[in-house]
């Protein structure tokens, strides 16, 4: 580049930079060559005239300059510094000693292989910019610099805007109309796919020597062609262009944004693959013209193979080389025939082996299990609510990516958080094949996000980082945050996936994130479901939205037993999931069918998941869930055992333990729980169930320790607050029990069991008037026709406490018919018959309950005192090691 003195302007210094020359001019301002006096290096300084920017862009431009400065990639011109003076803004950049791509192509004969290499480099640099949410908006040959080492570098990213800023045609410098995308030419909102269209124009020009929409000096005519005309077929200008390259150009130049590639890294990888093939082909690597001989990639691959077999012979002489190596081939004919016989035998064996291998390869491979560790954010100067929403948006984006991978299974979040341990423990406890972790560091509105894909080593013990992505972005637009994160996760797997969020309204998405947070912290409410119903259809089509809708609807149903919530869920699934084979839809449908009691349909739905290559272990698990809901505990155990044989996870071990416990087999239940705890020492559900079994067995100290440990970690855990209350109830600290039950009830209003426990605490404390009022509230709040088994048990006990024995016994008959094996059913029967003075039936049920593992302490309540006048009961207590149970009452004799 010229450093002639006549180009130097009156400016001689900016900050600590000495101006050496003016090396460029454009509509945005001037570019100077300067010397950094501190680091003693040459830099380029682009001065942007402030009149081109409206005042409110000033702070935003500075924030974006910070993002641009972090784009450290060999194919992007590095931003070193940002300068602000009263009359201008300036970017200090890496100085590239060379030419721009337009000049290089015009002044030199460039081989096709070199053109492909440059296109690969440009795509790689562009992908990194897109990872950080930066769109170039003016990608063209003039803005690509080629340095002395023949490396392509993208320049002028300094005038780009972040993806969440809707730019129009007025944001572009003059003369760029030839490289605009259709949406750019029409002044519509842009995302990274606009750059892909411009890159397609650039690639077309480099490989075909012409513009894809024709040559014309009429700007408006060319823009109209870009908007409405198809591109000229590449082979019109370059008949020898391989069809694979033509197809890739066609994708890039699609007018429909949805038909362009969904991932810039994927585009870069395609050009790299195509480049590696053409570089290794003599006709392409040594060409000096733009018309290499016509060849498909299949031909290129064949040439590579031939060259590998015999570098010094072309493929047409290989056979002749064997037969005519010398003139004595006839005397070796017998030897040749003998060898051929041996070859036939070996060949037959090889064919059989090949058939076996092919059969094995054609078998569907089980999906890979992916555990996504919930992100943790470290933020300075960012409001707490915004931190939570950013975190939720990131996690949602990762979920959206993994769910769309056909051969992968996303492990539910609860299974991961329940482990409550390090990543290696999560790996083994969940049966994961790989993990994705996220680190989020934010300051004000700018965040640095590091995504890592972790895979186990050869011994399956330690995790190793397989791939990592670091991106910087603005956190003031959650749709943009999620879209950028999703794009980066997609690049881990070199897959294209649909980004359904790109057209989602930002305000709607923020509401969706807040609803997700509210559900996690405060539980489901009808208003949350109403707010989801008010969302736009585009957001409703995302897997995360559908799963959230299902969770809220089912939580509300199980809390209220109001079938309206099931009807709303069913209507939603039908309206917003037209693909009946969609995996997420089938999962959600399965849960709905179980809630509705449609067990055969649930089994059929689980079977349909096989066609989506869902693991057989998971299908067995779903079938086991169905059997549990059906109260067929033995069938559930059989399915869980099948699931465990295929995949040993802490969750499956806990599930089978729970099934054994419900069937009355506490010995096997504790055995599997011990295995789960050995696999995952801090597993929440394992300790919760272990505490519950200890509670039933009368080991109050162990049970209390388990529940207190859980509540220390999860203060709002309703179930374990209630269970700890039962511990206090059994130790006759009725007031403390009532406080715990009330605390749990405030967190989960409408939960019948908690209401019953509160009433029981008051009854046992001798405050019968309060107790009866609470019992009556329970009766008025339950709809028998829609009540669950648990609610029916609570209602039956309530009627017995109120003296409505006929009603209590009628309900008990229904319960015993539906759930005869459950130990809670036996205890309910024992209590009702005792209060109704049916002593024979009461004692029979007490014996059954004790036999199935319930401890004698549960019959120490004053409700059972009238049985002390019954010799059979006194004898039974003696057998259980409680000879003093009835002594203080003096009722026995």
Question: Would you kindly provide a written description of the structure presented here, covering whatever features stand out?
Answer:
The chain has 893 residues and is of the alpha+beta class. The chain is 54% helix and 12% strand. It contains 39 helices and 17 strands. Helix 23 (583-595) packs antiparallel against helix 24 (599-608) and helix 35 (789-801) runs antiparallel to helix 36 (805-818).
Key words describing this protein structure:
six-stranded antiparallel beta sheet; disordered N terminus; alpha+beta; 893 residues
Task: List strands and helices in order, with pairings.
Elements: E1 13-14, E2 17-26, E3 29-36, E4 41-49, H1 57-69, E5 79-85, E6 88-94, E7 98-100, H2 101-107, H3 112-131, E8 134-135, E9 144-147, E10 152-154, E11 161-162, H4 182-185, H5 192-208, H6 219-228, H7 234-237, H8 243-252, H9 264-279, H10 282-285, H11 297-309, H12 318-323, H13 333-362, E12 368-372, E13 376-380, H14 384-403, E14 408-410, H15 413-417, H16 423-430, E15 434-443, E16 446-456, E17 463-474, H17 478-492, H18 506-522, H19 526-533, H20 537-540, H21 543-560, H22 564-576, H23 583-595, H24 599-608, H25 616-629, H26 633-646, H27 650-662, H28 666-679, H29 684-696, H30 700-713, H31 718-730, H32 734-747, H33 752-764, H34 768-781, H35 789-801, H36 805-818, H37 823-835, H38 839-851, H39 871-879
Helix pairs in contact: 3-5, 3-9, 5-8, 14-17, 14-18, 19-21, 21-22, 21-23, 22-23, 23-24, 24-25, 25-26, 26-27, 27-28, 27-29, 28-29, 29-30, 29-31, 30-31, 31-32, 31-33, 32-33, 33-34, 34-35, 35-36, 35-37, 36-37, 37-38
């Amino acid at each position: 580049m010229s450093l002639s003195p006549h180009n130097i302007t009156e400016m001689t210094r900016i900050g600590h930079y000495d101006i050496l020359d003016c090396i460029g001019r454009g509509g945005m301002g001037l570019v100077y060559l300067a010397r950094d006096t501190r680091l003693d290096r040459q830099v380029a300084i682009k001065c942007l005239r402030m009149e081109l920017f409206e005042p409110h862009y000033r702070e935003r431009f500075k924030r974006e300059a910070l993002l641009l400065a972090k784009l450290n990639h060999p194919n992007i011109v590095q931003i070193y510094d940002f300068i602000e003076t009263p009359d201008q803004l300036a970017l200090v950049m890496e100085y590239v000693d060379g030419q721009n791509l337009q000049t290089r192509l015009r002044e030199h004969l460039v081989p096709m292989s070199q053109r492909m290499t440059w296109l690969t480099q440009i795509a790689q640099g562009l992908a990194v910019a897109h990872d950080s949410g930066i769109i170039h908006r003016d990608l063209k040959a003039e803005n690509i610099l080629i340095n002395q080492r023949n490396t392509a570098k993208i320049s002028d990213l300094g005038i780009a805007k972040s993806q969440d800023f809707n730019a129009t045609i007025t944001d572009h410098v003059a003369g760029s109309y030839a490289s605009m995308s259709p949406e750019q030419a029409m002044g519509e909102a842009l995302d990274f796919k606009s750059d892909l269209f411009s890159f397609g124009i650039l690639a077309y020009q480099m490989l075909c020597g012409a513009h894809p929409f024709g040559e014309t000096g009429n700007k408006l005519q060319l823009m109209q062609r870009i908007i409405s005309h198809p591109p000229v077929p590449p082979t019109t200008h370059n008949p020898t262009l391989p069809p694979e390259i033509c197809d890739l150009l066609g994708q890039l130049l699609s007018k429909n944004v949805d038909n362009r590639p969904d991932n810039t890294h994927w585009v870069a990888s395609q050009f790299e693959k195509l480049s590696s093939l053409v570089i290794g082909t003599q006709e392409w690597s040594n060409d000096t013209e733009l018309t290499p001989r016509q060849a498909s990639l299949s031909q290129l691959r064949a040439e590579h193979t031939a060259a590998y077999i015999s570098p010094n012979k072309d493929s047409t002489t290989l056979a002749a080389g064997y037969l005519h190596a010398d003139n004595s081939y006839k005397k070796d004919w017998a030897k040749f025939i003998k060898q051929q016989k041996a070859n036939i035998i070996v060949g037959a064996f090889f064919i059989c082996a090949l058939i076996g291998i092919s059969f094995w390869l054609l078998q569907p491979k089980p999906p890979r299990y992916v555990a996504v560790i919930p992100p943790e954010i470290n933020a300075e100067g960012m409001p707490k609510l915004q931190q939570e929403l950013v975190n939720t948006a990131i996690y949602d984006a990762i979920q959206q990516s993994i769910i769309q991978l056909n051969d992968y299974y996303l492990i539910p979040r609860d299974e991961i958080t329940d482990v409550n341990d390090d990543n290696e423990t999560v790996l083994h406890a969940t049966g994961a094949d790989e993990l994705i972790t996220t680190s989020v560091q934010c300051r004000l509105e700018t965040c640095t996000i590091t995504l890592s894909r972790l895979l186990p080593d050869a011994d399956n013990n330690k995790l190793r980082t397989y791939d990592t992505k670091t991106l910087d972005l603005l956190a003031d637009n959650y749709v943009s945050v999620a879209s950028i994160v999703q794009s980066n996760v997609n690049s881990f797997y070199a897959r294209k996936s649909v980004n359904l969020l790109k057209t989602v309204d930002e305000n709607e998405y923020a509401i969706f994130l807040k609803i997700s947070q509210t559900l996690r912290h405060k539980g489901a409410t009808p208003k949350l479901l109403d707010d989801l119903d008010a969302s736009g259809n585009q957001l409703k089509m995302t897997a995360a939205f559908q799963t959230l809708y299902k969770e809220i609807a089912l939580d509300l149903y199980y809390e209220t037993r109001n079938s309206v919530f099931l009807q709303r869920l069913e209507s939603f699934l039908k309206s917003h999931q037209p693909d009946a084979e969609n995996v997420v839809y089938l999962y959600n449908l399965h849960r709905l069918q179980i809630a509705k009691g449609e067990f055969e349909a649930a089994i059929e739905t689980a079977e349909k998941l096989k066609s989506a290559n869902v693991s057989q272990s998971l299908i067995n698990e779903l079938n086991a869930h169905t059997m549990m809901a059906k109260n067929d505990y033995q069938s559930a155990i059989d399915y869980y055992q099948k699931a465990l044989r295929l995949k040993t996870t802490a969750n499956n071990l806990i599930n089978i333990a729970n099934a054994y416990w419900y069937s009355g087999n506490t010995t096997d239940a504790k055995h599997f729980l011990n295995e789960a705890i050995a696999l995952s020492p801090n597993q929440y559900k394992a300790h919760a169930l272990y505490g519950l079994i200890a509670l039933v067995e009368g080991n109050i100290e162990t049970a209390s320790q388990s529940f207190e440990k859980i509540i220390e970690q999860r203060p709002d855990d309703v179930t374990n607050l209630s269970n700890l209350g039962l511990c206090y109830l059994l130790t006759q600290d009725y007031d403390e029990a009532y406080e715990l039950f009330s605390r749990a009830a405030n967190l989960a209003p409408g939960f019948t069991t908690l209401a019953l426990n509160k009433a029981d605490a008051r009854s046992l404390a001798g405050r019968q008037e309060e107790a009866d009022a609470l019992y009556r509230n329970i009766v008025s709040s339950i709809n028998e026709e829609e009540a669950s088994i648990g609610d029916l048990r609570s209602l039956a006990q309530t009627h017995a406490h109120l003296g409505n024995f006929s009603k209590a016994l009628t309900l008990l008959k229904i319960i015993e018919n539906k759930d005869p094996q459950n130990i809670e059913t036996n205890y309910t029967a024992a209590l009702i018959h005792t209060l109704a003075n049916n002593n024979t039936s009461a004692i029979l049920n007490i014996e059954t309950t004790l036999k199935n593992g319930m401890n004698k302490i549960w019959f120490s309540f004053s409700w059972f005192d009238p049985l002390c006048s019954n010799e059979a009961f006194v004898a039974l207590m003696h057998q259980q090691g409680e000879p003093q149970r009835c002594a203080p009452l003096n009722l026995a004799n």
